[in-house]
Amino acid sequence: RAATLIELMHTATLVHDDVVDDSSQRRGRFSINALWKNKIAVLAGDYLLSRGLLVALENKDYHLLEIVSGAVKEMSEGELLQIEKARKLDIEEAIYYDIIRKKTATLLASCFATGAASASDGADVKKMWNIGELAGMAFQIKDDLFDFSKENATGKPTGIDIKEKKMTLPLIYALNKVSAGEKRKIIRIVKHHNTDHEKVDWLVDKVLESGGMEYARKKMHELTDSAIKLLHEFPENEARQALEQLIEYSVDRKK
Fold first, then answer.
1. What is the DSSP letter of 165?
2. Do residues 117 and 39 both lie within one domain?
3. Which parts of the chain are beta strand (E)?
4. Coil, strand, or helix at residue 151?
5. Which domain covers residue 140, as residue numbers?
6. Could you report the per-residue pLDDT of 179-209, keeping only the tens digit for each?
7. What residues form DSSP beta bridges with 26?
8. Measured between alpha carbons, how far is residue 35 from residues 28, 29, 55, 166, 183 in Å?
9. Is residue 65 in some structural domain?
């Protein structure tokens, strides 16, 4: 039941995300809002979320409901914070981590926590939440890296985060390394020329030259190492091995 609740909630957030981002594709296929417009997409997302909540209520899984409701709250706050900071485009790395922790990592944290809550006590639930949060932040940084790859298998074009004015870790690092003139040019491209392929290609090259990709990879692996170290506090068994493989896959994936 925990898996059903998480899956319905996750799908609902993806549907709503595509509306917020005005995205016409999801993993290389047309999004719901592209096929049936925003009104239908918003209602479909609401329906999926309500079905998930009802699964918990009908089975009196109030502990699962508490975890997932908290996750939805955090994810919404993260999205709002990202939209707010997109206006400025010159954010600190600490704020970036706060955004991805809330917006993305909370989802994976709730997956780990609800799994633990289905068969364990409060201490294990909290620890599993922390493991999922670390793994989720690493997952998001991996997504950031895709945006600056010349070729990728994500189903979304390179530079889509730039078009959506999202401040990713490689870009934040580059802004702190380039000259003042180049920094102004990068911000101007993100704000006003994010659909100009030639200018976006220049920006991507500048991020690569600055070492932004290497820095982001380093931070990503630090997070996964921390997650696995925490996971190893649990006894060695098949479940722990599966979770470790999941954490490793989240940063080794090609899409």
1. T
2. no
3. 25-26, 29-30
4. coil
5. 73-252
6. 999 999 998 998 888 888 889 889 988 999 9
7. 29
8. 14, 10, 28, 24, 38
9. no
Separation between Cα atoms, residue 149 and residue 254, nearest integer Å: 11
Same domain as 83, residue 53: no
Name all contacts of 203-209 with Cβ < 8 Å and 24+ positions apart. 203/159, 203/162, 204/148, 204/150, 204/158, 204/159, 204/162, 206/174, 206/178, 206/182, 207/148, 207/170, 207/171, 207/173, 207/174, 208/148
**Which tens digits make up the pLDDT trace of 218-250?**
999 999 999 999 999 999 999 999 999 999 998
Which amino acid type is present at position 188? Answer: R
Range from 120-129, 136-145, 201-210 carrying the lowest mean pLDDT: 120-129
Q: How many CB atoms lie within 10 A of CB 13?
A: 21
Instruction: Answer for the pair 16, 129: CB distance below 8 angstroms, yes or no.
Output: no
For the full predicted model, state whether its pTM sits above 0.90.
no
Same structural domain, 44 and 100: no
**For residues 149-166, b (16+ Cβ closer than 10 Å) or e, as one string?**
eeeeebebebbbbbbbeb
